[in-house]
Amino acid sequence: MKILSVVGARPQFVKLAPVAHAAAAAGVEHAIVHTGQHYDPMLSDVFFRDLGIPAPDRHLGVGSGGHGAQTGQILAAMDDAITELAPDVVLVYGDTNSTLAGALSAVKLHVPVAHLEAGLRSFNRAMPEEINRVLTDHAADLCLAPTAVAVEHLAAEGLAGSTVLVGDVMTDVLLEVRERALADTTAVDAVLAAAGLARGEFLVATLHRAENTDDPARLRAIAAELMALPVPVLLLAHPRLVARSAEAGVEWSGAVRLHAPLAYPELVGAVLASRGVVTDSGGLQKEAFLLRVPCTTVRTETEWVETVELGWNCLVDPRDPSGTAGGTSLGAAAARPAPAPTEATPYGDGHAAPRTIEALRALVARRA
Ligand code: UD1
Predict the structure, then answer these.
(1) Which of these, 11, 229, 310, 316, is most buried using a 10 Å CB contact count?
(2) Element at 361 (helix H, strand E)
(3) 243 ligand 1 Cβ < 6 A
(4) Known catalytic membership, residue 208
(5) Residue ranges of region Disordered (predicted)?
């Protein structure tokens, strides 16, 4: 069996790592296409280096652009890559434009497609990610679900027959990297010292979702709340946030210490050292939960509902981050005490990647 993984954006490199390792352990051939959606070294190369991911077999070099241009360019280039690499199955990850383009190209070339992290839903069709994940699930021959809730969503859309619950591959990699981060804190200590931060006395923040960064009024309102927090905030700024802040006239000051994105082991170390997380990232909400650090999510909904149900995540409406309309303010959410401890494992046991390889084997055997 030959698997072809299609990746392009930062969270996909994290998910690719355990899959690449499980494929190697199972003696399965595995090729990688990097679409080039993310090209900054801190959003791409460092993940391959730190997580021991083999170099991609093809780099499509697509880069940034509008949704249509970016998706279309990846789609066009993927046809040649799939034809040349001749995989038995194409594996796409998550919900980005690279995911949708990889799935569409494969399905039209009659190559079986599997979607990892299938069945997540925000039920917010204004998010580009929601369209990408719904269309990818319906194009896929195999939906690899991370949670029981994702399985329910797929069943509700008539996709039970193509669904397998494998667990969450980000949990696989996080549990492993957590041990490394606990054993060696040198790099994180240097980041904290340079930013003038003390362990346990700061928040880690990220903000990159189009719906938050691309509306100047919304971005200014969220920024005002973050800068007014009574604890220092290590804001790990995605290039999109830097660009949109400049356009919206936001000058980060007050509680906020602006910092470049961190490599994955350092991010995990920084979250472990923090007293909380403020984010609009899907992955970071879950990572905070797995590290048992309280999270505040600046979004009206989340795909990772278990984090909220278990009390470790609190949603703040980005249209009203100061809570003047009666909702929870960002400040109140970020200051809340840690919730009751939990032993719950809604994201699996850290062995989702080997299960993924087995599910791919079964798909290829069925289609042979
Ligand atoms: C993409 C995904 C999002 C995911 C995120 C992870 C889509 C629709 N969105 O959002 O689901 O959570 O990746 O980070 O696929 N840029 C750079 N350097 C880079 C990459 C981007 O400067 O290496 C800047 C460019 O100005 C670009 C902007 O960031 O236009 C947005 O990048 P893009 O890949 O379109 O989407 P993300 O916001 O990163």
Answers:
(1) 316
(2) helix 352-367
(3) yes
(4) yes
(5) 323-353
